[in-house]
Amino acid sequence: MEATAMAKAFNPADFEKRIYARWRESGAFSPQPGEQEKFVIVIPPPNVTGVLHMGHGLNNVLQDLLIRYHRMCGRRALWLPGTDHAGIATQNVVEKRLKARGLSRRELGREKFLEETWKVKNEHHDRIVEQLMRLGASCDWSRERFTMDEAYSRAVREVFVALYKRKLIYRGEYLINWCSSCGTALADDEVDHIEIPGKMYHYYYPFADGPGKMEIATTRPETMLGDTALAVNPEDERYRDCVGRKVILPLTGREIPVVADSFVDKSFGTGVVKITPAHDPNDYELSRRHGLPVINILNDNGTLNDNCPPPYRGLEVLAAREAVLRDLKAQGWFIREEEHKHPVGHCYRCKTIIEPYLSNQWFVSMKSLAEKALKAWEEGGVVFYPAKWENTYKHWLSTIRDWCISRQLWWGHRIPVWYCQSCGEMVVEKTDPDSCPRCGGELRQDEDVLDTWFSSWLWPFATLGWPENTRDMKDFFPTSTLVTGYDIIFFWVARMVMASEEFLGVPPFKDIYITGLVRDKQGRKMSKTLGNGMDPLEIVEEYGADALKFTLCFMSAQGQDILIDKESFKLGSKFANKIWNASRFILMNLEGRTLKAPEELSLSPEDRWILGRLNETIGRVRQAMTAYRFNEAAAAGYDFFWGDYCDWYLEICKLLLAGGTGEEKDRSASLLVYILQESLKILHPFLSFITEEIYGWLPRLSGTGEAGGLLINASFPEVRRDREAPEDSGRFAALQELIREVRTLRSEFAIPPEKRIPLTVVTDPGFAGEDYFRQSAGLIGELTRSQPPRFLSQEGGTPAPGAVAAAGNGFEAHVFIRDFVDIPREIQ
Q: What is the C-alpha separation between 780 and 788, in angstroms, rounded?
């Protein structure tokens, strides 16, 4: 191609889609067969109904950065993509659509409802994949997985049956978290505890066997309809004589006992606690210790059931609270109410207040699984970046409770348990049974599905074909690095380690990089409510994918949140524009030049300096990438290209290309192309599209081993000792210091660029750079816009008076400004 065919203005829309199509068509995203070291990332699967927000953008940008870097380092790099069926979230979307059509899932029936859900899944899946591609994600799409694929579903069933037969899965009636809106149980980790303003209500319970009464305080008076006792602390002298007596439960007439239990806090409220075992986890445990009855007062839709007196049946919780308070006041039992802030559990999906609910559910016994996951971390099998998140991991595993895995949904992996209609036999098998193995009777499958996390905790190995002994399992498991957010360390990260240790005996990955949060400039979390969220695709449309990617990498300091607004992405956009303009200038100045590799050239000190700086940059980037310090890696590439290469070396070469000898022009052109080529390789993981586009325009230098092809497949530069020239680098650094000092003086006194100032340089005795300064007189003159500089040593004379001096390391620069400034004004 002709170099001048490069568009004058940088416009990422001209080539991003074309470049991505070339990458895919070439098979660049798939690891090539071989024996070399592997590097594997499995994507944290986005919910199939979700739309990617800036947090997803950051997460996927960092994964792409890692996979491109390790691919260029010669490793068999696999980034395995996929999506999660997201049981509750997806079912909610479908039910809302049905409601808009005047239908419900019950009217539709399970089979038809699932058909509708698969349509929604396919529609949203295509959107998510398109978003990832627009970001430039170099995933191996040929290996894409979904948590309800047929093969993946086999892995889910394999794990359920195995854990059941190992007595690690059980079914029982327990108090669970119930979302009346979603109509399903939730695990403890799926409940968000949010502090809200409420009230503390005080009222009496009269004794059944004589005069007297006991005062209690509660935030939920409506649950009194399910009370089965009052409790006091056995060491509380105030109530010692009350233990063993009975009180009458107001509004119901039931008699309930007063029990003593050390669980009761003497200092809280009145020191008397009402016990409602079916609707409070602590009360439930106390009821088991004291053999108290358990009375459930709720229907699954959040209304009061027939265990309550008739006036309250069918009321929703808040309406029942008002009715109970009204009747307590009318009957003279109410004392007072007071303002009281307290944390209340909310559904993590729909934000409905959670009700503790007594229900038959399936659970995983977590203790032994957690011990293995904890040991994996203690022995260094998994490492967190930053290390502070190890405490979260350790605390959750050390205080873990059994995991409720059944959900009252239709969308998801149906629990592989069948019940015989004739003899009641329960069958748990990997394949669907035809009839009862005991009596031959007809079987009914459990109606519930498994918690979404029960499938996603298998993600690192089920995506590779487990439980089959596949080629991918042999080649790519265990994986290398997980990049994820801190909020699912316990939801997902710890559980993946548990599953992998239990079924494969090794952790599923070694390194766990926890991203920071993307916040607005005020430090607030981005949300729809605040209206401060940003769509990554809007940024891509305005600035290009590279601007988004580079900016997020540049600002992603390990262990810190990222504070951005839309203007922040101008950083990446300006840098991409700088790369484009510099590359275009170089390509437009190659006509008639003979290009050679650096080894074939006679190099100047500034040439050796730039090669040394290139070497240092390669080392800095490699070191930072190994330590997951992405911002340091991005800054190293930025500083080198913009500062060293463009601001210094390119400016020097411009002078040589304009007025140097033929040999000097060939040398400058050759080194400009070579260093641009190496710079594009360094920057490719951060700015993938523009570097690939420009790389395609570059001529290949003889002797460098470059044979064309795509940059995505090129080798990442190595640190090379033959580039190191500390003496030349030191001399050029002194020259830079001189030029900066003179430029600073010009700027301070506002001397116009067209005015060439007299300059004298006085060097210290024995100054090592003196000869180089004298050889570079023309360069100094051009870069400082001065007259041909005079050189003096301190032993050989002093400059004439009337100059402003600036001191450097081993020299002084005397700038004669008298004729170029308003002296009286400067004195004033």
A: 8
Tell me the CA distances in angstroms from 628 to 3, 328, 723, one per residue in order: 37, 62, 26
Rounded Cα gap, residues 52 and 130, in angstroms: 10
* Interval 38-81: pLDDT, tens: 999 999 999 988 778 898 899 999 999 999 999 999 999 999 99
CA angle 15, 16, 17 (to 5 degrees): 95
Residue 456 corresponds to which tokens in the numbers above?
Answer: 């996603």
CA 512 vs CA 44, 69, 388, 540: distances in Å: 12, 17, 12, 28
Query: For residues 445 and 747, what is the distance between their CA atoms, to the nearest angstrom?
Result: 82
Residue pair 169/362 in contact (Cβ under 8 Å)? The answer is yes
The position carrying tokens 């990332």 is 41
Nearest to 7 by CA among 653, 549, 587: 587
Encoded tokens for 382: 């998994």
Least trusted range by pLDDT, from 57-61, 235-239, 807-811: 807-811
Tell me which residue of 695, 525, 684, 669 sits closest to 601, measured CA to CA: 669
Closest CA to 44 of 369, 479, 384, 504: 479
Contact (Cβ atoms closer than 8 angstroms) between residue 116 and residue 108: yes
Please check whether residue 553 is in contact with residue 634, taking contact to mean a CB–CB distance below 8 angstroms.
yes
Q: Is the peptide bond before 386 cis (omega within 30 degrees of 0)?
A: yes
| Cβ contact 515:62 at 8 Å | yes
CA distance 568 to 487: 25
Count of Cβ atoms closer than 10 Å to residue 698 Cβ: 21
Before 467, cis peptide (omega within 30)? yes
* Tens-digit pLDDT profile for residues 143-178: 999 999 999 999 999 999 999 999 999 998 877 788
Distance between CA atoms of residues 648 and 639, nearest Å: 12
Reply yes or no on whether the pLDDT at 571 is more than 70.
yes
Per-residue pLDDT tens digits for 718-753:
999 888 888 888 889 999 999 999 999 888 888 888
Q: Which of 396, 413, 411, 414 is nearest to 188 (CA)?
A: 396
Distance CA 499, CA 509 (A): 12
Q: Give CA–CA dist 138/81, Å, rounded.
A: 9
| The residue type at 731 | R
| Beta bridge partners of residue 742, listed in sequence order | none
Alpha carbon distances (Å) from 548 to 41, 245, 520, 539, 581: 21, 70, 15, 7, 19
The pTM of the whole model exceeds 0.70 = yes
The tokens of 737 are what?
Answer: 């210091």
DSSP conformational letter for 84 = B
Edge-to-edge strands, sheet with 811-816: 790-793, 759-763, 811-816, 803-808
Instruction: Give the SS3 label for residue 540.
Output: helix
b/e code 164-173 from CB counts within 10 Å (16+ = b): beeebbeeee
* Strand pairing category for 191-206 and 334-347: antiparallel
Tell me the CA distances in angstroms from 197 to 339, 340, 344, one per residue in order.
Answer: 7, 6, 10
- Tokens 């007071």 appear where? 338
Cα dist. 724→280, 612, 614 in Å? 70, 5, 10
DSSP assignment letter at 481: E
Beta bridge partners of 489: none
> Residue with structure tokens 């098979």?
27
Distance of CA 257 to the CA centre of its chain: 52
Torsional class of 455: left (φ above 0), alpha (ψ -120 to 50), beta (otherwise): alpha
